[in-house]
Amino acid sequence: MPRVKSMVLGMALVLAGVAGGFQLRAQAPAGGAPAQAPAPAPPADTAAMRAQYEQWRKEFKTWGKWGTADNKGTSNLITPQKVLNAVRLVRTGTVVSLAHAEPQVAAADVNPNGLFRRTTNNITDGGTTDNYSVSYHGLTVAHMDSWCHFFENGLMYNGVPVKGNLSNEEGCKQGGIMNWKDGIATRAVLYDIAQLKGVEWADPNTPIRRADLEAWEKKSGVKAGPGDVVLLYIGRWKRRAAEGPAAAPVAGYYADTIPWMHERMPAFIGHDFNIDWNPRPGWEGMRNPIHVAVLNWMGINIVECLDLEQAVGIARKLKRYEFLITFAPLPVEGGTGSPLNPLAIF
After folding, report:
1. Residue 116's pLDDT is what?
2. Residues 56 and 132 in one domain
3. Domain boundary residue, one of 113, 141, 169
4. How many CB atoms lie within 10 A of CB 6?
5. How much of the chain is in helix, strand and coil states, percent to nearest 5?
6. Between the CA atoms of 205, 210, 213 and 215, what dihedral angle is there, to the nearest 10 degrees?
7. What is the model's pTM?
8. Low-confidence ranges of the chain (pLDDT < 50)
9. pLDDT of residue 111
10. In sequence order, which residues have a C-beta less than 8 Å from that of residue 63 and are 6 or more positions away?
11. What's residue 37's pLDDT?
12. Residue 271 maps to a domain
């Protein structure tokens, strides 16, 4: 994981003549969550899947596919025609946010270091300013990653060495968040796993498998393709409101979805929690296999901790599970990712 890095953005970038600050720290969530129930037994295919994973590590790399200097990976598949096609999905003009309110109170899934701290400065007769500080990599803030967030054997996506490319002083030189500064506008495909299984929210102990994704495609009549954003809905925020916050378990993507991702080549895979199934009985000693596969091997990016509740409600009402999605990161030189407020437009 990259070391903690602080970045301060003057509010003058947003409001001319207004002084203020916006500080971001890229941190992984720390411990301290309440004890969880014992993890279930490993799936029956765990040993075979781990062996397959090692083979996929060799087969599924897209390094060099878009050139040796490429930094955008499958985001290259969002062509101008792709954007135009996505815009044509807009029919009602309804716009909803896919981000939850920024966490300002510590909780089981909000590490104290990950709180979004808003400080209001001097209040005068003429106005005021405020400072924002947040560690956005974690379990609560809607965000996207860059290739500088996850490495393997000292290499980033496309074979870029970490050494000489990443430092505490300058952050990420190549493969950082600035590669997406012009924003994303493309087709989103919603995978409503809760509806598929006929529940309010997916069992958090259960991994989401390729068979689940394909069953939903058959039920909904839509499926993800090149340059799309996959949005996996497990009902995280609905469950949180009913049962309280929890850092684990998480019904995330199972390893057998990796070939599906390689075949479909989406620009981003999304989730309303962390994308990896967690905990992963039988996968001890292997860190976040989905993060590694997409961010390091395939150049597929991640948007996670999204709040999909409003979008799911509209999609179910309209019986339409594809729509325009748009978002852009903060243009932070050297950044390993960015908080987001993605918009779904129906």
Report:
1. 87
2. no
3. 141
4. 11
5. 30, 20, 50
6. -100
7. 0.88
8. 1-34
9. 84
10. 157, 158, 159, 297, 299
11. 54
12. yes
